[in-house]
Hints:
This protein is of the alpha+beta class. 39% of the residues lie in helices and 14% in strands. The chain is built from 13 helices and 12 strands. It has helices spanning 6-22, 30-42, 88-102, 135-139, 164-174, 189-202, 206-218, 229-233, 239-242, 247-259, 275-286, 299-305, 355-369; strands at residues 48-55, 58-66, 82-83, 121-122, 129-130, 272-273, 290-291, 294-295, 320-323, 326-331, 335-340, 346-351. A 6-stranded antiparallel β-sheet has the order 2-1-12-11-10-9, with helices on both faces. Helix 2 (30-42) packs antiparallel against helix 13 (355-369), helix 3 (88-102) packs across helix 7 and helix 5 (164-174) crosses helix 6 (189-202). The protein is globular and about 55 Å long. Residues 1-25 have low confidence and may be disordered.
Amino acid sequence: xxxxxxxxxxxxxxxxxxxxxxxxxxxxxxxxxxxxxxxxxxxxxxxxxxxxxxxxxxxxxxxxxxxxxxxxxxxxxxxxxxxxxxxxxxxxxxxxxxxxxxxxxxxxxxxxxxxxxxxxxxxxxxxxxxxxxxxxxxxxxxxxxxxxxxxxxxxxxxxxxxxxxxxxxxxxxxxxxxxxxxxxxxxxxxxxxxxxxxxxxxxxxxxxxxxxxxxxxxxxxxxxxxxxxxxxxxxxxxxxxxxxxxxxxxxxxxxxxxxxxxxxxxxxxxxxxxxxxxxxxxxxxxxxxxxxxxxxxxxxxxxxxxxxxxxxxxxxxxxxxxxxxxxxxxxxxxxxxxxxxxxxxxxxxxxxxxxxxxxxxxxxxxxxxxxxx
Length: 373
């Protein structure tokens, strides 16, 4: 169901209420969900957003509300593209799982096996030697790197000027703040190191490997690190800059902006995507690595992503573990995507209002949709 106009919103709301009246206790209460959406729609800090619930592969609730920005008249709809921020992490970890399934690497491999600069690490402010973290530790935030996101880096950081190889070397020279496997510190750094491992193993740029090995096979055709003109025009943060300009002008502007920074691809937080693409991604996990008749990744390998890692609290390899078989991730832009691996139920919430502003909707919706019996 697609909702754009008030009449359609009313029809969908009535349909959701009807579903709520006939479902079992553990089914999501659509009246509660509608109330959360209405509250978000009335919140001036959330100009627009969407909520999608999938049950048995069918979209049972698909709500779009508001506009791109407070000053925009462009309605938020099923074509809207968003920055999913840290939802990029489970996607990156899933790419690693595909490569593990192919025999290209192992979650237990020390990254020094591929990146020699990690063979002689030390603790910061000390001369104590520490071992190389493993791929699994890098993807579970227990590698010993300092915590922090890309947004917290100073403007002149080498991370913002280099490529994958240069960033990986820089992080190695900075040393660790904890011994690998001993402490949890949420950070992009482990993902940066693993992205370089993938480039070394495959001999190809990380974005190309992501596209060939994961995004294309899953049909995630509008998920990318480098959105082009069409996606930029449909992105709440960028659409206003492209409005009234030719495609050629917008393409030139995109190239100028990219040329101002380095070529580093932040696999921990830089993807843009759509509800449809994330539905395909989460369904892939619900289907234990299959797309149609094709097994993209072994179920046994994917299962390792959902296992709590040592020193991590409710975190697996790239996934938050929400309990009861529900796994997923949220994003700092105000996004959330989760799947119940036991039932296949999926929830995708999009805003671009920032995690604190969106939290009543993202957290509230998760409580309603994944309510335990």
